[in-house]
Write a structure and sequence with these properties.
By secondary structure, this protein is α/β, with parallel strands linked by helices. Helices cover 36% and strands 18% of the residues. The strands form three sheets. The protein has a nine-stranded mixed beta sheet with strand order 4-3-5-2-1-8-9-10-11, with helices on both faces. The chain has a six-stranded parallel beta sheet with strand order 14-13-12-15-16-17, with helices on both faces. It has a two-stranded antiparallel ribbon with strand order 6-7. The C terminus is likely disordered.
């Protein structure tokens, strides 16, 4: 069995889930890889659970090691191993962990497991700097990311933006240049990639959604049947409740305050509107305290498909965004989706066909879209159908998995195994891969 070393900022914690890492690890296991993960976290957060094939999981840290047998009782190949390095976490708007010794740990794991592929997921996290250490040691490394923090993705707040920009054009630029190949989850502006000097070694492969045995189609059909039923005295537009939902952490960059303000304005005209915010937040979060009587704040939930099955309108109002898993889940569930026109949102949503886009921060435009979809059940239905079709055509795990299979095969053929280190004394230099396939901007 081939081995893949995945370097991720975090794994699964209530306040910081690295969904792309968890999902991709599951996908790569299906492709036949044993995945070894190193991430920031604490021993108390050991959770040997993953979305993917249920084989034999092992979670480890510097202080703790545990194994879980598969349910059949017989030995099964270990396909996931997680190493967590304790860190100090700076909360919103930074959302940044600091783990001394992380790069050294990643290098030791690379030398121990001799992986066929090394992937660093995300740029400009503390964990991302392990890429430089590995490249200096002669390892070939793939970098995957959905955003360019400080270039195409920005936090809210002037000081945080200044820091992000400085960080991006120093450490971020070095990491991009050092990577053997760069995989973006959604297209980036070609001019920026040229300016960064990484266009020739960049490509686009999105994350996706597992549609195998998917039950959300039935939920979508139920929603369509409800919208098709004729209006009656008991089911007039004013009596049938419509649920509008946000799913995600309550962080400033997510724009949840805009969603709440816009939805509450519409609720004044449409009292049947039910507003819910689903996701982790700090205790006594000011937004929750201010609006808990008019808005349902569910806190962290693990039954998102069930929540989406009863959602009519899904809203993602982020000021900056990568390729949102929450938005993909809502589209898969057949919800009528409204999202800010930033980052990967415009890659997922074809405006007016598979959802509505609006300028980030424009509460009036957001309220107008919500109002339109309340008043027009047929448009809700068509957007939901278009959303599901978009996911099936471009973002199913089968399609994404085939793209990664081809990428890994070509990467090994062109570069050899990741552990085929450079000869002693050979200096590493930052350079573009002239043999890369170029940036996919479709």
């Amino acid at each position: 069995m081939r081995t893949l070393l995945l370097i991720s900022p975090y794994w699964k914690e209530d306040h910081r889930w690295m969904v792309s890492s968890v999902k991709l690890a599951g996908l790569w296991q299906r492709l036949g890889y044993r995945v070894v993960v190193v991430c920031m976290g604490h021993p108390s957060d050991q959770r040997p659970v993953i979305e993917g094939e249920p084989r034999l999981w092992r979670a480890t840290s510097d202080q703790h090691d545990s194994t879980i047998p598969n349910h059949g009782g017989s030995a099964a190949p270990q396909t996931l191993e997680i190493h967590r390095i304790p860190d100090f976490f700076l909360s919103d708007p930074w959302n940044y962990g600091i783990a001394p010794g992380f790069a050294g740990k990643a290098l030791r794991l690379a030398e121990e497991f001799k992986p066929d592929i090394i992937v660093v997921n995300k740029i400009l996290f503390w964990s991302s700097f392990a890429l430089l250490r590995l490249r200096l040691a002669g390892f070939k490394v793939l970098l995957t990311t959905d955003t360019l923090v400080g270039i195409t993705w920005w936090p809210r707040g002037r000081f945080a933006k200044i820091c992000a920009a400085i960080y991006a054009w120093t450490g971020g630029w070095l990491i991009l240049k050092a990577a053997t190949k760069v995989v973006f989850f959604h297209p980036q502006p070609p001019a920026i990639l040229q300016r960064l000097g990484v266009a020739e070694k960049s490509t686009v492969i999105p994350t996706g959604i597992d549609l195998r045995g998917d039950q959300r189609t039935a939920n979508s059909d139920q929603r369509k049947d409800a919208d098709r039923r004729p209006q009656t005295a008991d089911r007039s537009p004013d009596n049938r409740s419509v649920t509008v939902t946000y799913v995600g952490r309550l962080e400033s960059v997510k724009g949840v305050d805009d969603f709440v303000a816009a939805a509450l304005k519409v609720k004044q005209e449409h009292p049947e509107l039910q507003i819910q915010v689903v996701g982790w937040s700090k205790e006594n979060h000011p937004l929750v305290e201010a609006h808990k009587d008019a808005v349902t704040f569910t806190g962290l939930r693990h039954d998102i498909p069930d929540i989406l099955s009863s959602t009519d309108i899904f809203v993602l109002p982020s000021y900056s965004e990568g390729l949102s898993n929450a938005l993909m889940e809502a589209m898969t569930a057949g919800c009528a989706c409204i999202a800010s026109d930033v980052g990967g949102n415009a890659f997922l949503i074809q405006n007016g066909v598979s959802g509505f886009l609006f300028p980030a921060g424009d509460r009036e435009a957001l309220a107008a879209h919500i109002r339109r979809l309340i008043d027009d059940p047929a448009k809700r239905q068509s957007l939901g159908e278009g959303a599901r079709k978009r996911i099936e055509e471009r973002f199913s795990w089968e399609k994404v998995g085939e793209e990664y299979r081809k990428l890994f095969e070509s990467f090994r053929m062109e570069n050899g195994p990741a552990f085929a280190k450079a000869s002693t004394g050979k200096k590493w230099k930052m350079e573009n891969d002239s043999h890369a396939s170029g940036t996919d901007t479709k």
